[in-house]
Amino acid sequence: ELGIRIPRPLGHGPSRFIPEKETIQVGNEDAMMHTLFAESFATLGRLDNVTLVMVFHPQYLESFLKTQHYLLQMDGPLPLHYRHYIGIMAAARHQCSYLVNLHVNDFLHVGGDPKWLNGLENAPQKLQNLGELNKMLAHRPWLITKEHIEQLLKTEENSWSLAELIHAVVLLTHYHSLASFTFGCGISPEIDCEGGHTFRPPSVSNYCICDITNGYHGVDEIHASQTASIPVKMKCVSLLFKSTESVCEVEALMEKMKQLQECRDEEEASQEEMATRFEREKRESMLVCSSEDEESAPTRDVSRHFEDTSYGYKDFSRHGMHVPTFRVQDYSWEDHGYSLVNRLYPDVGQLLDEKFHIAYNLTYNTMAMHKDVDTSMLRRAIWNYIHCMFGIRYDDYDYGEINQLLDRSFKVYIKTVVCTPEKTTKRMYDSFWRQFEHSEKVHVNLLLVEARMQAELLYALRAITRYMT
C-alpha cells in the first residue's frame, strides 16, 4: 500500500547444492556451534552463508574465523581499507561477486574511498602494482620469481615493505581459496546481497519463473509433478539401482584402500619409480578438464577490480613450457614458510599452521554409512593430488595411489574447484561420492581450500626467500 518493494529470497538455505533441510538450522545447533555463530555475528555483523555451511565442521570453522578476524581486523602492517580492497581484488580474479560485494561494504564501512571501487586504475599505484602478483597467484603461481618480488619492494615511493607484502600475500591466497569454497559448496548470496533476492511477487503456486531459471525454490515441486506419472514400480527400480551403484562405489573405494595398505606393507617402490609416477600423474592431471569448459567473460561489475581479464588458468606444460618440479624437501611450509610468515607478521604463521593441520587431519572415522574407518590415505591422496596439479612433489609419496583412489568425476570436480572455481556446477558436485553425506563433501572442500592456499603460499614465500637471500 505504501509502494515499498519487499524483497523475497531467491534461494532456500545457505547453499544451492545442499538442500536446506540437510543444513544445520539456526536454533538447533549445539553449544559449540552456538558460540561460533555468536562470534561470527559479532565479527561480521551478520551470520553469513559461508559460516552456515562451514559449521558442519566446528573445529575448522573456529580456526578459520580466528584467522580471518586477525587478518582483517587486528593489528598488522596494512591499514584496514587496504585489507578489504585486497580481498576485493583477490575475489574478483575468480569472478566471485559474493565475496566482492561483502568486502565492498566492509571497505566503505572502514572509511575506504568510494572512487577506488570504480576500477583498479582509480586505486593508489601501490595497490595497482599488486595486480600482477594477484593474477599469477590465482592462476599460475609456479611462474612467480624473485624478480616479481623485487619489483614490488623497490618501486621507490610506491614500494611495499616485506611485512606489508607478507600480509598482502596471505590475504590474496586466503580470498582465492575462499572463492574456491564459495563456488565449490554453491554458497547462495544472503537476501540483502546482490543476486540473493527478487522483487517479483509470488505467483499462485508460490514460485516465479526467475526462481525456476535459477534452479532454486519450486524446482523440487516441478520435478515431483513431472515424475508423478512414471509408474511406481519403475521409480523404485530406478532408485534401487542408483542406491546400489552408489553403495558399490563406497565399498569399492574402501577395498582399494585396504589393498593399497597391504601393498605398502609388502613392498616399497624405488625413488626412481616414485619420481616416474609423480611425472605421470602430473601429465595426467593436465588431461583432466571440466566438461563445462567454455570461456566465460567476467562481468564488468567484477572485472573492473583487476587488470588483464583474459589471463586465466593454464596447465604449466602448455605451449612447450617446462616448469621445474617444486620439491617439498627443498622448501616446505613446516621448515621454511611458517617461520618466514611468523617473523614478518607475528602470530599469522601460527594461525595458518593450525588451520592447515585441522583441515588435513580432520576425521570422524566415517565413510558414508561405514564407521571406524581410517581415512588418512584418502585425505592424503586428495591433498597431494592438488599439490601435484601445482607441480609440487613429496618424495616420500607414491603417486600411483591417486589413480586408485580418485575417480575421473572426482578429479574433474577437484580441478575445477581449485583452478577455475567459477565454472563449478551442481552437476559436478552431485556426480562425485554420491552416497556420501553433504558434511563429507564440505570436508573435501576444506581440504581443497587449504591445499590450494598452501600451494600458492609456497611459491610466493619461496620467491620472497630467494629475494632476501
From TrEMBL:
UniProt-listed Pfam families: PA26 (PF04636)
Compartments reported by the entry: Cytoplasm
GO function terms (MF aspect): L-leucine binding; oxidoreductase activity, acting on peroxide as acceptor
Record-given protein name: SESN1 protein
GO CC entries: cytoplasm; nucleus
Top-level division of the source organism's lineage: Eukaryota
Annotated source species: Todus mexicanus (Puerto Rican tody)
Family listed: Belongs to the sestrin family.
Catalytic reactions on record: a hydroperoxide + L-cysteinyl-[protein] = S-hydroxy-L-cysteinyl-[protein] + an alcohol
Gene3D superfamilies the record matches: AhpD-like
Keywords: Cytoplasm, Oxidoreductase
Chief location: cytoplasm
